[in-house]
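Sync notes, pocket subgroup
Present: LS, DG
LS reminded everyone that the earlier model was apo-only. Rerun requested with glutathione included. Inputs:
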Amino acid sequence: MSIPTDASGSFRRRGPHFTDRIVAEPEGDGQWPVEPGRYRLVVSLACPWAHRSLIVRRLMGLEDALSLAITDPIQDERSWRFALDEDGRDPVLGYRYLEEAYLARDPENGLENGVSVPAIVEESTGLLVTNDYPQITIDLGVEWAKYQRPGAPTLYPEGLRDEIDEVNEGVFHDVNNGVYKTGFASTQNAYENAYTALFARLDELDARLENQRYLVGDHITEADIRLFTTLARFDAVYHGHFKCNRQKLAEFGALWAYARDLYQTPGFGDTVDFDHIKRHYHQVHTGINPTQIVPLGPEPSAWLEPHHREELGGSPFGDGTPPEPLAGPLRPLPPLDM
Ligand SMILES: N[C@@H](CCC(=O)N[C@@H](CS)C(=O)NCC(=O)O)C(=O)O
């Protein structure tokens, strides 16, 4: 996989190519109607940006309204593929590669910004609708209200949006994308700058979470989901593979307890797949891990240790309720004798 860096050796994220939205009341071009059974969410369980949409789909109870496709964690030269499915094809879309949806939508320039997850595809036509991950989670939370489960939480409450946006902005640059900037830096200077900004922000978040259970307000919001998916990967991947190693997440105080609290909340830990996460990063980024060896550790059981964050007050879902426990594993498990 080639990694885009600029002249200073800093990683440059390419951004989404398809920014259409799926909304309750479409107005004009680029807006598609919310409709149950019409769309398919394509994720990799390895990907932190896709993981956000998986958590929100589950918290909102949108499983019956929006179907789910899970890619193989290992991309090949044509990127994400449906190699986990029978005959290597997604059973609904009939595709072997996610790029087929990108090209169906835009045969000329569809692959210009790469083929990324999360992506939403229209089932009947196979057209890529959007790969705009920050908008996808907001829209699943707000625009799909009619099809959400009773008790679905409000993840982006109107009165808190400015504060959530502000927290998200710093978390995006220094943490979510910061770990990539640290790991993909191609000069010492670019690496040190990203590393410094990352740990300065984690220190700030750690202090913020000393006396409050969640990042903004008294309940889980979009801000917690965005931070969680990076924290979940921190010790397993970013600490070693991306050289984010001033300390482990497990060596923080409040931040580690906060991450465990979320992990133990339905919708969070049950959507974390450490196997896909570790195999994806260590086997795909051959530029920084040429042997493709996947580390065995760390032991994940620490995520289940008590966190005592209830003592800070707050309630995870506000006036809402937790989602039902998962009926089965997120993905088909390999046969036991493998
Ligand atoms: N590309 C998206 C973010 C999503 C993303 O980077 N997903 C990764 C997986 S973690 C991916 O699919 N990368 C493949 C690629 O961009 O070609 C963006 O920056 O707007």
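DG: The chain has a mean pLDDT of 96.
LS: The domain at 158-312 is CATH 1.20.1050.10 (Glutathione S-transferase Yfyf (Class Pi); Chain A, domain 2).
Action: DG to write up.
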